[in-house]
Design brief:
Blueprint (H helix, E strand, L loop, with lengths): L30 H80 L2 E19 L2 E11 L7 E5 L5 E5 L9 E9 L3 E20 L1
Antiparallel strand pairs: 1-6, 2-5, 2-6, 3-4, 3-6
Length: 208
């Protein structure tokens, strides 16, 4: 060690300067080591603090994410229930309409044209036929005698409902047919008028 007063180089273990006798001030034992240890401790504390902050930030982010996801799930579930409920209501309404339409269709399909009377003959003459109320269809056909210009078959109702076939003097001798429909509010009488026919046929149908 160098004496601070005279600059003489003394041994490290010297307590007094060998030249001037000044007491030697030795450095505290382990001073440098203590400083180094303090630095390491400070660095370690800083690292620990940084790690704690990072861990706390991670957990805070995870909690926020879970909260957001939970809220999103709640909204999604609520929306799904509302949509499902609306779909159920719409489906019920659709079923109701479909059921009503199905009933109407079934009723309509159960109806058909039913024969309520068939009449036939030949030659010339007329007949009166009583026809019940409802939706009525009349089908008629006839075959004429040759070489006559006034051959005919007519079916006429009391309210102007009518249909028929006839032939002119130059018409082909062949079977002719006709049909018509009408709606009767009550039972009515129809007249079948035929002239110079080989054969004729009239059939009445009612939609029921």
């Amino acid at each position: 060690m160098k004496c601070e007063k005279c600059g003489f180089e003394n041994k490290k273990s010297a307590k007094f300067c060998a030249s001037c006798g000044t007491p030697m001030e030795s450095a505290p034992a382990g001073g440098d080591s203590g400083t180094s240890n303090s630095k390491y401790i400070i660095i370690a504390l800083v690292i620990v603090i940084i790690m704690l902050v990072a861990v706390m930030g991670y957990f805070a982010g995870s909690m926020n994410s879970n909260n957001v996801q939970t809220a999103s799930d709640v909204v999604e579930n609520s929306s799904s229930k509302n949509v499902e409920s609306s779909a159920d209501e719409g489906s019920g309404q659709t079923h109701a309409v479909s059921s009503s339409q199905s009933k109407t269709t079934t009723v309509e399909e159960s109806k058909s044209w039913v024969s309520i009377g068939s009449y036939s003959g030949s030659g010339s003459g007329s007949q009166s036929i009583s026809v019940p109320s409802g939706k009525i269809m009349v089908k008629l056909s006839a075959y004429p005698i040759k070489n006559y210009a006034t051959n005919h078959l007519y079916v006429t109702g009391p309210n102007g409902e009518s249909g028929g076939v006839d032939w002119g003097s130059h018409s082909d001798v062949e079977t002719r047919s006709d049909s018509f429909t009408c709606t009767l509010s009550s039972s009515e009488t129809f007249t079948i008028d035929y002239y110079e026919t080989v054969s004729w046929e009239v059939e009445f149908f009612r939609y029921q």
